[in-house]
Amino acid sequence: MKKTKRRVVRGTVVSVGLTAFIMGFIYFMSSMPGEDSSQMSNFIVRNLERLIPAFDYISGAAYQGAHELLSWMVRKGAHFTEYALLGFFLAAAFHTYLLPEDRTAGRLFRGFFFALLIGVAYAGTDEFHQSFVSGRAAMLMDVGFDGAGVFVGALLSTLFIGRTKIRYINPKE
Questions:
Q1: Average pLDDT over residues 20-36
Q2: Phi and psi of 134, rounded to 5°?
Q3: What's residue 14's pLDDT?
Q4: pLDDT for position 15
Q5: What sign does the CA torsion over 130, 134, 140, 146 have?
Q6: pTM, rounded to two decimals
């Protein structure tokens, strides 16, 4: 096997493997009962409150409002981050497997589009799955945050692949 083919295969295996890992991680996190998920979020929020000096100077309703806002940001930020990673690795998988020799705008867009489509579909099925988990609920707003994460991750991956000169794609450069 040629050296360039080996690199394409290795890149494909790595990106598909990371995609599968992220999908499994998302499924695992979605399978956690609501109480366990809340405990994990609260642990992160409490530690962030210790790091943010402003929380030392507020109390009462102001503290409660700031706590709720930070909690919301942690939960939605987790959705966004998980799915940004999924979008990044999905797009990388499409670009390394389907488009290894052609970085034209049309082909790059196709890889981006398919990554976005699969990522958002996975977000929808993930929310549906959560509706069967104790203490959890399916929320359309979460699919929106997930979809935004997929969009950003896939866009970053597409821009990175489109801008870099990878030796095995064009060995003469």
A1: 93
A2: -55, 125
A3: 85
A4: 86
A5: negative
A6: 0.83
E strand or H helix at 111? helix 105-130
The rounded distance, in Å, linking the Cα atoms of 29 and 84 is 15
Q: Is 32 in contact with 40 (CB distance < 8 Å)?
A: yes
> What is d(CA 167, CA 139) in angstroms, rounded to the nearest whole number?
44
Give counts: helices (H), strands (E), the chain: 5, 0
CA atoms within 13 A on the CB side of 21: 10
Give the Å distances, CA to CA, from 141 to 77, 95, 106. 13, 29, 31
Q: For the chain, first and last CA: distance in Å?
A: 21
Phi and psi, residue 104, nearest 5°: -70, 160
Tokens of 155: 């866009």
CA 161 to CA 11: how far, in whole Å? 12
The ranges assigned to domains in the chain are 3-35+79-163
